[in-house]
Amino acid sequence: MSRDAESKNDRLYDKRTVERSIKKGLLTRKDYDKHIKTLEDVAAKGVLGGPEPGDDDHEDAAAVAE
To answer: In the chain, N or C: fewer CB atoms in 10 Å?
Structure first.
């Protein structure tokens, strides 16, 4: 599959536009549900937000604001 075709396919299943794709008939709900079930669970790869240890940028920003 070419890079452009792969990109179009990704956009078809994009969470932000999938309802539009279904309404236009480009995708069925059944196909979408099937696609979602094939995705791997990546929850363990997530990272919680927050400052890194030793990251003093927030203090520098406060000093500049004063």
So the answer is: C
Which one-letter amino acid corresponds to residue 59?
E
SS3 sequence of 6-54: HHHHHHHCCCCCHHHHHHCCCCCHHHHHHHHHHCCCCHHHCCCCCCCCC
* 14: region left, alpha or beta (phi > 0 left; psi from -120 to 50 alpha): beta
- Give the global pTM: 0.57
Q: Examine the pLDDT at 52 and tell me if it is beyond 90.
A: no
Domain positions in the chain: 1-40
Cβ atoms of 9 and 1 within 8 Å: the answer is: yes
